[in-house]
Amino acid sequence: MDIHRARFIPYPSSAINALAFSAINDGELAKGGLKNLRLAVGRANGDIEIWNPLRGAWVQETVFHGGKGRTIEGLLWIQEPNEFDTEGRITSTGQLRLFSIGYSSAVTEWDLGTGLPLRHSTGNLNEIWCFAAQPRLHVTESRKAANEGKPRGQDIVVGCSDGSIALLSTADNDLHFQKYISRPHGKDVRPLSISFRDRYTIAVGFNNSTFRIYDIRNSKVIRTVSLGAGSKGGPKDLHVWAIRWLPSGEIACADSAGDLRFFDSKLFTQYQRINAHRGDIFSIAISHDGSSLFTAGADRRTSIFRRGRSGRQWNKQTHKFYHDHDVKALAVYDGNKTQQMSFLASGGLDTNLAIVPIQHYGEEYHRGISGLPQLPPVTSSEATRLVACWHGQEVDIWKIQSQDGDTGNGGAPRRLVHMTIKGEEAIANASLSKDGELIAISTAAVTQLFRISRIEDGPKEKLQIVKLTTEAPLDAGRIVQISGDQKWLSIVTHNNDVLVFRLSRQENGVQLSKQPFRLERIKRGSDTSSLGSYRRRISRLQFSPDSKVLVVADLAGFIDCWQLEGIEDTSAPDVEMIDVGDDTSDNSSSDEDDDNDQTEMKSFGQHWTRMVASKALPQLDSAALFLTFRPGRRTKKAEANGTPRKEINGIKTKHAPKQAVVERDDDALVEQTNDKYELFVLTAKHQLYEFDLATGQLTSWSRQNTTDCLPDTFQKIKDRAMGCYWHTTLQAQRLYVYGSNWLFMLDVMQDFVPETKDEEPESENGGLIARPQKRNRQGKSGAGDKIRDEDYVGFKPGVESIQDGEPVKKKRKPADQTQPLNGQQTDREDDEDVDADEEPASKNLRGKRSRGQEADGEGELGDGPRKTWHSFAYRPILAVIPLQETASYIETVVVERPMWELDLPPRLLGPHDKAR
Which regions are flagged for Polar residues bias (predicted)? Predict the structure, then answer.
């Protein structure tokens, strides 16, 4: 394998400006518990990322793309009130709603199902600088308020650039202006931060060294508190960037001088002041019980404060540098001790996300997450060595030069095309055809198809891009993909409709079918969680290698698949509607509940229909990270694929494709039409499954080689997978999986379970043998793993027995550590505590475990091909691009995007930064 490290793609990662959890503690989680917990990340380019903590896995589920000149400066979640029956039981769970602000005069609400703006607030407001939502009512409080007819929703208070403060109502699933709480009361006085004490009392920090307490019911100013003048030689007025109410009713505020101040709950007098940072403090976060407080600011520090023994004074415990630039946002989820999930999220100009434990702070590592997209914004054409990368409204197409076979050297990558898409919407997805002659680009407004032509201009190659005209604009899409045979274009719209267009080659170019196939997904049971239709949002799409099967997966873990039927007839119309009468089968692509649809669409004699076994596919334990089909095996022989038949791959078809004898050489990769369609799926929990789409069941390989059988190194990887690619040889089918800082190979032609007793450990008594078990290093808070003894700072808590001045080691009980003779564990010590309904596909698929063969490097181990290979030498990875593949060789490019190459403004230097 030949791997090239490349940094030629200048992808501009965007700063994090806002963070918000959908709940701040377990009491705010609706039915479903932690399944409803999400983190919204707002970036400076207008994107909003939705992350699922997933008990410490931290998966980026989707991205709501922004547009030209847009930014996200604030985020918040609210939840609609639950509906109760006459006996006080919940009949309908309130749905979550997400809002944002970004230097505009309106608050924007986002549709979680489509990822598009749902509505904007009304009212003639100035530019909004800050906002906050009323605290949620507990279920018992909500039930009582419902019986008394009191308001139960969460209204929003906004602060505007002219100094005014307004109240927006979210009642009746709307967002409209209700009243002004405060009119402008001074020149250049602007509110910078807002915090609620209860549902009717707010504290607002201003840029003139003051904060005010308001009662929003009567718009009355309860108290105005002054912080005094700024330091000598500095600005006269202090900016109150952050203000928070503590559970005790006290107020904590942070200003531009780096001071953290605490005020009494009754008279609002200052009782403590701490010079916490060397620069502006931008954000404050508080634990659920009010015992811990976190601050972050321009000096890159994240500081932790704890209450003293007196219960009033605050002491600084420590500070850490989790980021390399200004830290602009903090958010906290602090669950109870039974659920163990408790963490602080932080982000700033360095674009990375940091997850810090709260309840187990000092006992567990923090978790750093790359600021690069988790779904690579890269598409490639192996045949032409073209690579396309997109960001914002721009697309760059690069040519990677071939390598010299003798020296291994080649020319530097060349950017052949730089194009800008018209409109203000950002590019959501793009797909380059296998032959490099087509590229499809989708935004929130439209999907466009371009033809790529090569122009020879002396020694340098140039590309000409021509937009293909269609009779009607293509539907806007979130996901687009051109099939491997370049005959189909699939689009997943923002409404999660699956459309398939036929691409036909004409003398004058490429022509698109007038109408698409609309593939209907199977209707599942209604989702009773507070996320509603968001969980049915399609996240992945994949064509089979022969382009005859299409598969999609959604965030709930459901998989739908369709197959292409019929023999291609180029003399037939590109679109024709055929009356099928009452012979509509259950596997039709149309909705099975639509009895009025008696016609079927065909294109050149072919049509798409739902696969019979689609209903048999189980729900995955979590969302799919990638979908990929097992490729055909390489062979040296010429084989005849047989005669046409009515059933292929165990799948019923009305017409069988033509079969022929194919001559192959050593490097020919043949996709045999009579091979089964075997789909590999890696879930967000890093569970690897392989499904036979003919039956909807796990393949024999997958049943035998469960994730527990895979190498320990793979199972311990924290960062989730971003993509995969294949390399097939005469003796191996190697699946390469990669994440933001790792690359792993699994040979899925081999078993990872010991096959013979020679591989089993021996036992003298022929029975059970005691083995020392590994210490459970997995963290409990949802951040990093437990801190190792050598990395522990300070005195480690614990009880130690001393005898004669020496510590006494405790003996392990062998009764709980016995294992079968073959040395394979029956229960994993480091298994996560998961809900019973979270593992539908893997509940009874626990397998035996073995280490396999793993090492850093190439080569063969033992008598056969290597089973696994991995490397952590590349980081951070933007994408891994396969370029060339033969029976004995594969060439790939690992595209890295180090942080020091980002275009960032100068940072605040501390006393220890001068030498850097």
Answer: 816-825
